[in-house]
User: Fold these one by one.
Assistant:
Number 1:
Amino acid sequence: MEYQNKQPPEGINTSKQHPFKEFSTLLIAALALVFIATLVLGVGGGWLAGKLPISAENKIAALYDITQHTDTAEHPKLAKYLQSLADKISKAQNLPPDMHITAHYMNSPTVNAFATLGGNLFIYRGLLERLPNENTLVTLLGHEIAHVKYRHPIKSLGRGVLVGIAMSTGSANAQILGDAGLLTVLKFSRDMEKQADKEAMQTLQTLYGHIDGGAKLFKIFHEMRDSMDADEPAELFSTHPLDQDRIDSFTQTAKQKGWSETGNLTPLPDFFEKAFE
Amino acid sequence: MEQLIATLVFVTLGFFFGRRAEKKHYTSLIEREEKLNALPVIASRIPPYDAPYEQSLVSGSVVIANDYFKAFVAGLRNLFGGKVRSYETLLDRARREAVLRMKVQAKKQGADYVFNVKFETSNISGQYSKKLPIVEVHAYGTALKKIA
């Protein structure tokens, strides 16, 4: 009789479990881990960055030569006007003495304006063209200056940097600062936007004694989205509060604080519209 | 985004093709093992001395490539630790295939036993080892053929 080896049973050195089960369990756990780590690092980074002295923030901002990206020098009259408004608003918002606002004009059709590190504001022609009066312009500037006042740019940079460091594990160099980007639009959270809106309303009331013209800013944004046929993102996924909510919040705040919703609107200076030609 | 889609495509392809290949391989492994099981393969270093034997080295080696699905699961496993089940089957298949190839060689020589069987496992993916490991398993032993 021929010798016969016994065939060993299967599944001792290997697992019978369907590989997809391991895959899905691990994937869910990994995503949860990344989510929690990002949250903790993000909140922690934002909190830490908020503790940075303003002078340190200005130093970080000075690493970049911002003026070469702007069109401020070509439009001195307009730039001067924007700067004078910014100074006026800074005073009204009681900015700390070492916090300086610099308004930069961008000759581009983009409908946008944003605040970034070191108190630098960027205002695009596309948005300025659509503003009907000074009150709305002050709302815009007041909103962006409020971001600087509450140190939102450095806080959101802090979030990005800490998360970035964690993700690149170890290569914590200046590249990360570059990636987070000074000139890119820093994403502010919804709470930050609401805080800035509130401050902008307060500024309007302080400077003009009424908040008329303020809600118009968000109507402009809304109309622009309508004309571009772009749907607003659902509130859950958006960092900005919904346009309608922001418009309504002007009425609500006016009622709460007993402010007037109507008043004399200050026209924009004559050279304003010509400046865009 | 493109990277994400590419990863997803590779992982899906890896899952389906890898799984199909693995199933086919296991079926063939079991079939061939049953055919060759009359040849004893023994890890012992002490050969039988009931009779004079002709000795020769026999070896079987196999190179198996990983797929993206397995690599992806193993990568995730790195985060948490634990059994890397996706690689267990890969190496199990490689070892068994190597032994089978060794046995085929021994059988061709008309060997009665293969003694002192050992395994070597090596990663041959070189500098790309971080991406997709390619594994070589080498089984070798001493084939003994009774001198009539």
Number 2:
Amino acid sequence: MTALVVLAHPRPESFVFAVFESALRGLRQGGDTPEIADLYADEYRPGSALSATHRSALDRTSTLVLVYPTWWTSQPAILLGWLYAATTEGLGSVKSLVCVTTHGGPRKGNLVAGQSGRHTAARTVRAACAPGASFHWVAHYGTDKDRQDRRVAFLHRVERELALLAS
Amino acid sequence: MLIAPDPNMQKNQILHRSAHAVDITLTTAGHTVRTIDLGRFSPVLTRLEMAAYVTDQPLIDEQTTEYAQAVLNCDALVVVYATTMSTLPPALKGWLDRVLVPGVSFTLDGSGGTKRGLAGLDWIIGIAVYTDTWLATKRTYDNGRRILLRNLRLCARPGTRTKWLPLYSATTADEDRTATFISRVERQMSKL
């Protein structure tokens, strides 16, 4: 069983893309050989079924890692559409659900606004996974006013936590 | 302004009756209703839009520019949707992602902070249909409601009023319950 890392960001030069690469590095350090579903590169459209490639990757995976920017306190529409298709078809092989996400605003502001994305993943998506599946939240806040050292520290954190999960 | 459900993804008679009730009641009362059909809207924020997001011109698409102008000019935003995975359906979430960008829902104040952008809104009204019961909805945090009544509300002026009209366990709703719900929608709309 391997990890499937789902990326939902359109720009390879973004911080989220760097986070995605850190997640892959961490999983490989932990001995995993992760598979990738890049929703933009694979031209996924919300409302459509999963591609055969994504479906078979999901069936093989025990760890589902979602890497995305938080917009409006929730997942981007392209990822919501993908998750809806995935939960409808079944996520029974997933024993560990991991969200790795960035927030433009500070942690306090996101708490006030409701943290919808976290609740959707932790409650609804996890409920479609295997019974007893674990949930891990690896989040960075305040990206809009960030310093470079904080971003680098988050990249290291992602790598470390994903390596631990994979080992 | 009425954001109506996507007919392709949500073949739900209650939603369409609700949207119709909103439209008819407001129009009869003399309001101008602008309806947005999410079935004709791509919810995916594009690579070019992401690049433009941090510039002075974040709206680069003709359709999203027109929707943004409509939001800024409207007095009431009425959103009608079927809850999907305890949150907004992707089509509606994508509408927020692509239309309510910096300069529309909020503006940057120059010091890294933000200011509310939807100063003209008097009302934000959500009409939500759930397959789950009230209790099951609360257990999953009702995330669509959180996004609209907390997150979006924070982008409107402090005096903006909100109203939530939910129909729980909609799959088992008989004609009596549905009619009662539609009447409630009509009563709320007649108060605007």
Number 3:
Amino acid sequence: MKRFAFFPGCLIPARHPAMEFAIRSTLPKLGIEIVDLEGASCCPDPIYFKSKDKISWLAVAARNLCLAEDIGVDIFTNCSGCTATLSETYHLLQDLELRAQVNERLKRIGKEYRGTARVRHIATLVRDEVGYEVIRQSVVRPLEDLKVAIHYGCHLLKPSRIMQVDDPNNPTVLEHLVSALGANPVRHRNWYLCCGKACQTEEVPLNMMHDLLGAVCSEHADILCLICPTCYGQFDHGQMKVSRQFDEEFETPPIYYFQLLAFAQGVPYDKLGFERQRFKPECLRRFEMATAETAAPSSGDVHTE
Amino acid sequence: MVQGRNNSQETVRVDFRFRRELAQKLEGNLASFCYQCGACVGDCPATTYSGTFNPREIMLKVLYGLGEELLTEDSILWQCTNCYNCHERCPQEVKPVEVIISLKNMLADRGIIPPSAQKIIETFETTGRTTPISSAVHKQRERFGLPPLQPVPMDEIRALIEPASKGGDTA
């Protein structure tokens, strides 16, 4: 088993525990041991606290990276916001002058940032450390003929000089991850759009989401797969809001990739928390019926340190 | 076009005090490398959907030192979606989004933060998290068999976000 420190952030553990459950049940099946980070705080978020004071933001982020350095493992994140903050911190602190400045602050709590722990989004982690083929082999319930629209969001890919995940103009990682489950990924015409959550006005995110949902729905996809809890909120609660405001029917259920993976690996639908979603991916139930007789579903037990 | 001057005859005076203050912020000084090509505009979702937000214009106002036009109560800066497309596209590596965040730092120094953002910042500064933890959260986690969430060591977080003391470190 390869060991990696899990940086769960704020949104997933508190608001979307089903996503965390899915991560903890899928990774061990792919040969990854999850190491919990003791004393981790908010990354801190790259929108709000960073807008107040960048140097304090950097110091707190560096402290989080120190926690992984102290136990000698690399970090993986499950939220694009955390990925943005921690990757940018890792990148910025390669500048030794800035590192010294941040270490002055860390000295106040007896810590020192050394730059030894790498940061990766969980989608990148499974691509690079597990590989698509092993993911494919872990699937007991292939999602054949499931049409899956994809939303990359912003901070998995950009800025590419810092994230170094994929080609921001033509990314493929999520298409491959979805294909590994036996499903058919589809790229809608507004695939590159932001979800708009960080924008502190009504007009921009509302009109943007309207265009985005129009593109997603015109593909008649069964579900929309994404890898960020903030994007998820925009596509679940937000989709309802946009539908109401424009008096149009948008109803593509969003799913966090690792919940879809957990389902494909045999975790029962009813254990994955989908009942809490406003748009429920009921279309998945047909796979459960199809495999009920051929494979014994796994228990979906959670593995923690 | 940059607006806000009283009449076309009036010369634009660069406010160097504003420029110096921005340069103190992390990556704030990158705006100096902007040559106004507009590569940041085409891919900017806020430009597409707001009609008033334009990253090239914001960089131009920074170059002119027209801070007064950017640092207002209803600042246009908060229309930025933080998508990082401008950072991706800029041939000069100006990172317009980072300059905009530095400008927001200047707004915060003046006590101007939108209430929606302020609420999240306060949650972080008091709990170390941006999402509040309630008993309902604990119950939900239990239901999924997840380990309980531990409190964040706030003494450490508070020590880190304390501004540098006079004559002390420069951080």
